Amino acid sequence: MYNVMSPKAEEFISHEEVLESLAYAEKNKNNRELIDGILTKARERKGLSHREAAVLLDCELEDKNQEIYALAEQIKKDFYGNRIVMFAPLYLSNYCVNGCEYCPYHVKNKHIARKKLTQEEIVKEVMALQDMGHKRLALEAGEDPVNNPIEYILECIKTIYGIKHKNGAIRRVNVNIAATTVENYRKLKDAGIGTYILFQETYHKESYEKLHPTGPKHDYAYHTEAMDRAMDGGIDDVGLGVLYGLNNYRYDFTGILMHAEHLEAYKGVGPHTISVPRLRRADDIDPDVFDNGISDEIFAKIVACIRIAVPYTGMIVSTRESQKCREKVLHLGISQISGASKTSVGGYAEPEPEEENSAQFDVSDNRTLDEVVRWLMEMDYVPSFCTACYREGRTGDRFMTLLKSGQIVNCCHPNALMTLKEYLEDYASEETRAIGDKLIEKEMDVITNPKVKEKVRDYLANIHNGERDFRF
Ligand code: SAM
């Protein structure tokens, strides 16, 4: 029903509309009355249009900016509570035929080590990830139809879901691979992927084409319309993102919200997540060459304004960001973070030898998963290893319905506590376990349904018996 006459990339990301929105935002950045009106609407927690959000992003009134941050924090609490979902990336292959100017995997880079994991290597990597406590992965790969065809990706997914090691299992495999066909998206769906993630990099067509001078990724329309094809192929959960630093952030902020509006209007459900990656130093890549780097302050404002504009969309920050920066944006709307990430092809089971550098970019947060989990709990967040929504079929609009019903406290919260307890029991250091046990006890009060509470208590008490699968 939703597919009829779906507009093309240059229509749903209309350059003129972005420019007009930016001019409107610039003109109104000190318009107190208008900003008050937008904030009143935002307090209804039904989101904002891209134009309204652009005004908030540009707002220069100090007191209103404080209101924006406070509202983002409140919406985050109301919708996501204090749960933070954990994941790790797994780089499968860095063979790539594209010419992306900002990525060290670009085809002309002859000194980076090219690698592709065999199925045996994947088993080792995944067991190492399971031994840290990870349950959710994001698969990453360059685009190379010969070295990394869809069949290779599908084989990797099958291998990963098949690994049962001690109490560990990867229960949700998200996939971040190049734009592809409806047919291939259907294959990914059939393989049981969670979210299909694809970063737009920039919505500005001219810059996009310059930044991707060669290879299939050069095609702006094909890339920008990928999420429509993914949804046509049956994938409910898609993850958007732009790479901040490549182009004017105001343009890309507006573009990503227009993209979300498009998916909601034509596919019936908006993006499941929005990622906020920032450009990093990498082999053969100097981020200073790009003129659009953004400060930590602007970065935080972007996160806050996305939180307000699309309250139902999860937000992801990776280890590209430092501990300090992650701490700041967690409060403002982030709901998922990676921990102990390696951006090299392999490297979890055994560290990559220095002379073999295959990494995509330098990470800023190098802590172990145990350290990240403890740090979150010390700030009163509940690290969650839950993947139940996806396994229970609560994806796409069904997940949104749950979110909108306010029953998250009797579903997501208990699941988060049970999976955290499993993590503490199976993988945590003693110090982390002690902090976690106290936190779980305190967090039981958040559950409002007495029957649910009783079931959770029962589960937690019997966790030594090895049960690891009960979820709401
Ligand atoms: N090949 C797929 C594609 O074209 O979308 C997967 C992409 S890659 C493994 C994941 C993401 O890393 C890219 O979409 C890009 O935004 C990001 N990335 C590339 N170079 C980067 C850099 N130097 N710093 C930070 N992020 C980078």
Describe this structure in words.
With 472 residues, this protein is α/β, with parallel strands linked by helices. The protein contains 20 helices and 9 strands. It has helices at 9-12, 15-27, 32-43, 50-58, 62-80, 119-132, 150-162, 182-190, 205-211, 220-224, 226-232, 249-267, 296-309, 323-332, 369-378, 388-391, 396-405, 412-426, 430-443, 450-461, and strands at residues 83-93, 136-141, 172-176, 196-197, 238-241, 273-275, 314-317, 336-338, 382-384. Strands 1, 2, 3, 4, 5, 6, 7, 8 and 9 form a 9-stranded parallel beta sheet that branches. Strand 7, helix 14 and strand 8 form a beta-alpha-beta unit. Helix 5 packs across helix 13 and helix 18 runs antiparallel to helix 19. The longest helix has 19 residues, at 62-80. The relative contact order is 0.13. The mean pLDDT is 94. Bound molecules: S-adenosylmethionine.
Distance between the termini: 31 Å
From the alpha carbons, calculate the radius of gyration and give it in angstroms: 21 Å
- Listing every helix as H and every strand as E from the N terminus to the C terminus, the arrangement reads HHHHHEHEHEHEHHHEHEHEHEHEHHHHH
Largest sheet: 9 strands, parallel
List low-pLDDT spans: none
Helix content: 40-55%
Estimated structural class:
alpha/beta
What is the general shape?
Answer: globular
Strand % is: 5-15%
Q: Average pLDDT value?
A: 94
Unique ligands: S-adenosylmethionine
What brief labels describe this structure?
nine-stranded parallel β-sheet; 47% helix; binds S-adenosylmethionine; alpha/beta; 472 residues; globular
Protein topology:
Blueprint: H1 9-12, H2 15-27, H3 32-43, H4 50-58, H5 62-80, E1 83-93, H6 119-132, E2 136-141, H7 150-162, E3 172-176, H8 182-190, E4 196-197, H9 205-211, H10 220-224, H11 226-232, E5 238-241, H12 249-267, E6 273-275, H13 296-309, E7 314-317, H14 323-332, E8 336-338, H15 369-378, E9 382-384, H16 388-391, H17 396-405, H18 412-426, H19 430-443, H20 450-461
Parallel strand pairs: 1-2, 1-8, 1-9, 2-3, 4-5, 5-6, 6-7, 7-8
Helix pairs in contact: 2-4, 2-12, 3-5, 4-12, 4-13, 5-13, 6-7, 13-14, 15-19, 18-19, 18-20
